[in-house]
Amino acid sequence: MKARLVVFPIKGKIWCFSRSIDQSASAFNSANTPSTVKELWKKISSNSKPLNANAELLVDFISNKMNNAWVGLEKAPEGSFKNKLHGFGLQLLARVKPSEILLKSISKEVTNVRITYPPSLNSRLVRRRLRHIAMRGTVIHRKYFYGSVTLLPLTTALAVLPLPNIPFFWVLFRTYSHWRALQGSEKLLELVSDYSRAQNPSAEMMEASKELEELLRKGYENGSVNEKAISDICIQFKLNKIDVLKWRDLV
């Protein structure tokens, strides 16, 4: 599976690193994830793959259930408890760093990446910054993954309260998120490393885009890229605007 990463300066010395939305990848993951406990058990019991592969299948199943529950909250009537719960969840999600979102988007199925960047940037520096994000991610998300795992038993105990166990579900989500980001960090580091390029030159392709450069030139004002230019870039390169804005608002 191929992944397209778009890199460009968005505010001062801050760069944006975002993956283009790939609908086919989402459809592939959904089709290969069991939707019921019966299907999950059937796949695991008939699976000759190693234990870690079955663990990933279980994690994907839980993630799918969490996503469906989140969609249910999103569709809840205005002013209802579920609707307020969804709003609270959005506030928590706003705190997730954009680098984590990028790393989570690099799944194990990705075999090569195409890095699109404006010609004004040095290609070696672009690759170096990507490697830095990946290397830093392997350290940070491994640490927070183990930290989140240790909190799960404590938050599980709150189930005795006559209220939704929001802390448990939040910690469960953060555990999953850090685990995915860790996996993505290791995969991205593998794809953009010098060794990987030497072994498999097609694993990475640098693409200087004059179109991206022009959109940035028109929209750069007061030290950052304005929102109209960001919208145009997101449309042209199929990026998630909310994720891109997180880079611009990064402190």
From TrEMBL:
Coiled coil regions in record: none
One GO process term, biological-process aspect: proton transmembrane transport
Transport among keywords: no
Listed transmembrane segments: 144-173
Designated name of the protein: K+-H+ exchange-like protein
Pfam families assigned to the protein according to its UniProt record, in alphabetical order: Mit_KHE1
Sorted UniProt keywords: Membrane, Transmembrane, Transmembrane helix
Top-rank taxon: Eukaryota
Cellular component terms (Gene Ontology): mitochondrial inner membrane
